[in-house]
């Protein structure tokens, strides 16, 4: 039996926006006297906008320096810079193999979902020309809890009317892998250094349907033999 659905994270899986987030955060952090580098930025992967700001303020030892409205203003300035930079994205910015994987899954009768905590996800999908490629995109603005909570993956399963236990989730961030595992789906991690992924691949180039199918079948056999 095939999986019912494959549910994808967006940033770092479908396209690589980490550098655009970094440049925008670096500007806003510098405004308040905090320096961040790419290594620190890696810790912000998969983390919501406000939680990212909180980590930056903590990194600069300024946790208590800004009240809620000042934090919202900083987050708003970062987002304006980030949204401007999204004009660089085109269909060529889709990571290797991902458009073809989405087509193959459709041809196999497997549903596709998106589980991104980015409030900019609809604009990014449009810039990439992928807005009609997903059967259901979970709405980040309705989330009560961000990753590593499984809420967004469960919302995607509900929207697709599928059983999490019969789905695969794909992520490039540790918080995302934890969210997938907590949802009861099988987790596939993209990139180095991720812990607890059921399958870990170096890049999206390795993320093909034959690879996913072999992984799925192996997991089903392991599950059947343990019962
Ligand atoms: C995630 C990114 O996908 O979305 C994070 O990995 C980002 O870096 C988060 O902070 C929220 O994005 P946005 O577009 O709502 O600020
Ligand atoms: Mg990501």
TrEMBL record:
EC number: 5.4.2.6
Cofactor(s) needed: Mg(2+)
Residues carrying the site annotation Important for catalytic activity and assists the phosphoryl transfer reaction to Asp8 by balancing charge and orienting the reacting groups: 116, 147
Keyword line: Carbohydrate metabolism, Isomerase, Magnesium, Metal-binding, Phosphoprotein
Database matches in InterPro entries: B-phosphoglucomutase_hydrolase (IPR010976), Beta-PGM (IPR010972), Beta-PGM-like (IPR051600), HAD-like_sf (IPR036412), HAD-SF_hydro_IA (IPR006439), HAD_sf (IPR023214), PGP-like_dom2 (IPR023198)
Recorded family membership: Belongs to the HAD-like hydrolase superfamily. CbbY/CbbZ/Gph/YieH family.
Protein's name in the database: Beta-phosphoglucomutase
The organism of origin for this protein: Franconibacter pulveris
């Amino acid at each position: 039996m095939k999986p019912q659905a494959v549910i994808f994270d967006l940033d770092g899986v479908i396209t690589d926006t980490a550098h655009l987030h970094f440049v925008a955060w670096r500007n806003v952090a510098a405004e308040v006297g905090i320096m961040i580098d790419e290594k620190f930025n890696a810790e912000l992967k998969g983390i919501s906008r406000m939680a990212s700001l909180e980590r930056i303020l903590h990194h600069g030892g300024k946790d208590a320096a800004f009240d809620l409205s000042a934090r919202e203003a900083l987050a708003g300035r970062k987002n304006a810079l980030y949204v401007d930079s999204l004009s660089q994205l085109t269909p060529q910015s889709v990571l290797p193999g991902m458009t073809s994987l989405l087509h193959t899954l459709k041809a196999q009768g497997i549903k596709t979902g998106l589980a991104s905590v980015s409030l900019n996800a609809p604009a990014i999908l449009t810039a990439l020309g992928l807005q009609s490629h997903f059967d259901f995109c979970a709405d980040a603005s309705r989330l009560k809890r961000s990753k590593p909570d499984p809420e967004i993956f469960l919302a995607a399963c509900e929207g697709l009317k599928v059983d999490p236990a019969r789905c695969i989730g794909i992520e490039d961030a540790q918080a995302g892998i934890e969210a997938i595992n907590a949802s009861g789906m099988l987790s596939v991690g993209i990139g180095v250094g991720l812990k607890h992924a059921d399958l870990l691949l170096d890049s999206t180039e390795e993320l093909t349907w034959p690879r996913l199918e072999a992984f799925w079948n192996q997991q089903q056999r392991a599950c059947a033999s343990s019962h």
